[in-house]
Amino acid sequence: MHIAIAGNIGSGKTTLTKLLAKHYGYRPVYESGNNPYMNSFYEDMRRWAFNMHVYFLHTRFKQLVDIRKENPNIIQDRTLYEDAYIFAPNLHAMGLLNTRDFDNYIQLFELLNSFVQPPDLLIYLRGDVPTLIKQIQKRGRDYESGIRLDYLTSLNQRYEDWIAEYNRSKLMILDVEEINFADNPEDLGTVINKIDAEFNSLFS
To answer: Can you give the residue range of the structural domain that contains 62?
Structure first.
């Protein structure tokens, strides 16, 4: 079983990954914590956008390839799709990723994506921008301190557009404005019940 968690910056992906991995005994798969381009990207997005996204692409792809060799049950924090369908197109539209680099990146993504399977269940964490900002400030990561409001807003819209057309696997949408799985055990229980129901439908 492969559960993937998608959502904008600050939506709670890592927290939910940890909680679900603990509950189900699945292996958590996180984003690489030592991206050498992250700090540079937030200081100068135009200069480092291509480098950072190629790094994300190859590390996520390698994660999936390595995991599939062992075939364990996994909970994945952020998907391969989000860089290609959300973040890279957003930077291109903002003029921070030139068309030559963007086209090169998308072609590389399409090639790598042809070798991996989609998750069995995609969980999308939907959140309003003020909530995302609050969460970003709460966790206090230095490299995120310069994230712009218009950047988060445009990402949110792209997430909504992507999810509206997503059809690769089962999809569950959780509104983080209405459910607090991080601090409320009852809310987490509600999420787990929803996932169990999806499991039952997958194997029925």
So the answer is: 2-203
What's the CATH number where 21 sits?
3.40.50.300
Residues 115, 69: Cα–Cα separation, whole Å? 13
As annotated, the active-site residues are 77
**CB neighbours of 74 closer than 8 A, spacing ≥ 6?**
1, 2, 3, 26, 27, 28, 29, 67
Our count of domains for the chain comes to 1
pTM (two decimals)? 0.89
128-187 pLDDT per residue, tens:
988 888 888 777 666 566 667 888 899 999 999 999 999 999 999 999 999 999 999 999
Angle at 101 between CA 166 and CA 49, to 5 degrees: 80
